[in-house]
Amino acid sequence: MAESLDNIRTVLNSIDLHDTFGELRGKMVFPSSMNWDVVTVQRSGLLDLLYQTAKDCGVDLRFGVKVTGYWESEDGAGILLENGDKVAADCVIAADGIHSRARDIITGEEPVPHETGVAIYRSHFAADIIAGQPDANWILEGVGERDTCKVYFGKNASLMIGTLGKGNYVFWALPHRDVEGLSEAWLQPADALRASECIKDWPIGKKTTAVLSRTPPGSCWNHLLTSRRPLSTWVSKGGRMIVIGDAAHPMPPNLGQGANQAIEDAAVLAICLELSGKENIPLGLRVMQELRHKRVSVVQNAAIDEMEKSFRANWDADQTEAKPNHVPHPAWVLRHDCIKHAYEEFQTVADSYLNGREYIPTNAPVDGVYDCGDDVFKSAGKPS
């Protein structure tokens, strides 16, 4: 799968940060010395690979099937389907997103949505659509083996725009404050020309809207950015059902950690089930929660707080923390090896649980504060 991922990956040297005049005000540099084992990919491409891998492994995949109920006993758990089928298993892992139907049933909690007051336009399309357009193909300059990503920060709106898949696709995302009439549903078709209205008066507006205006019909969406505050538990009382990913901890996208933390969930859960064994499924799920809950909760709360800060940002502020380019990248988040950590900590957590002792997580700040002191970009020579 590694080779397949490499074929579709997005390769960036930096993310360039601009004001609304187009002036370069900073960079997030990804130097080769950082030696990250990180792959950035288009989500649809990753889903295709995961789907094919699951098929190759013989996983029973069912689409267009509605789950109407969940159940668990001392010996197993399962789901009920709309057609009357009862599916039995050793455990149930619910990864059904921010609008999870399983969350309330499994955890007994349904947190109130945290309204950010922000919505976001999103789009991506084939780069050849603008390749022959002189006013729009500036975003393709210099791409090929490397991609590009630029962020323009303005008041009440910002624009991220660039290429994906080594120049094969153009993408853009535009967070904004015009939220009237919108819901959380991702696939709400939108008019890219209306998105352009948010930035048309920027000094750089003519240049950026030239790209947005070439967005093909049916390739633009607009939806609310909402979140939830952390749940107190992810595991059912019987210990055989668990929620993970956005079903457990939805968060705004500004820290780039929503999908990342969901993938960490899956990896750690797989290891915990491997180490607990079929005879100790409830222990495996509870250890997974202990390994993940505090870490993700700190990130989840920080993503909400940072989203609110970004719309108050000011390039001319005296304090670095108030500038738009101040996005924290703590090493405890970005350099964490969740697989190694899970193998090393599993037995410690299991012993603590079985003996009624508190476990203090080693993969998150002890005080629960999103500590940004050890910023990976600063340590790698990030420009001030």
UniProtKB/TrEMBL annotation:
SUPFAM superfamilies per UniProt: FAD/NAD(P)-binding domain
GO terms of molecular function: FAD binding; monooxygenase activity
Keyword terms, alphabetized: FAD, Flavoprotein, Monooxygenase, Oxidoreductase
Pfam annotation, one family: FAD_binding_3
Residues in FAD-binding domain copies: 41-273
4Fe-4S found in the keyword field: no
Family: Belongs to the paxM FAD-dependent monooxygenase family.
Protein name: FAD-binding domain-containing protein
Source organism: Aspergillus terreus (strain NIH 2624 / FGSC A1156)
